Structure prediction request, 93 residues.
Amino acid sequence: MSMKIEDKLFLDRFKVAEESHLRIVDGEKCTKECLDQSCLYFCPAYVYRLEGDHISVNYEGCLECGSCRIACPHLNIEWRFPKGGYGVSHRFG
Prediction:
């Protein structure tokens, strides 16, 4: 039986830093210029969410895959690795 993405994400563990390693550079660009808002669909961990008139970044569950910085057609996402010792730990099994 194959696992759903939600089940696979449950295997990951996170040590969350106080400061986000993800940042939307210009929030207005996301809501006024970006018609596709691909970050909402491309991120496998659903880190980006449309809340009212802005996109929120819930970095705590980031898988550090970098998909968001590649998917953003406006290069409007600043992505860097979390501070040393923080971030995701993948478990296999």
Remarks:
- The chain has a mean pLDDT of 84.
